[in-house]
Amino acid sequence: MAVSVRCFCVVAAFLAIIGIASFNPADGAGECPKSTPDAEAMKLIPCASAAQDPNAAVPASCCAQVKQLGQNPKCLCAVMLSNTAKSSGVKPEVALTIPKRCNFADRPVGYKCGAYTLP
Fold this sequence. Notes:
Blueprint: H1 2-22, H2 37-41, H3 60-69, H4 73-80, H5 83-87, H6 92-95, H7 98-101, E1 112-113, E2 116-117
Antiparallel strand pairs: 1-2
Protein name: Bifunctional inhibitor/lipid-transfer protein/seed storage 2S albumin superfamily protein
Pfam families: LTP_2
Keywords: Signal
């Protein structure tokens, strides 16, 4: 487990460097207006195991980041389906259950996210 988290962190850091290097701050009209979905995905490192295993506990630090991103459902969706998330082994169908697993009353229930719907 520790090895997979360490590997995820190395891959995520590498992808973040690439994402930051290619980030164009003048282009702020995407799903995540102040950043890119790949860059925002880096904030969800505490969610790594919870996004791969539906039975894993969701850490409070993960819930806090998801709550912040969840204020913009388009951005949260883009982050969950981002290249960074995919390359780190995130399972979208599991990752999209995190707001429910964090017991957010104001989560975007029924929001269509790619081929998935937020429960």
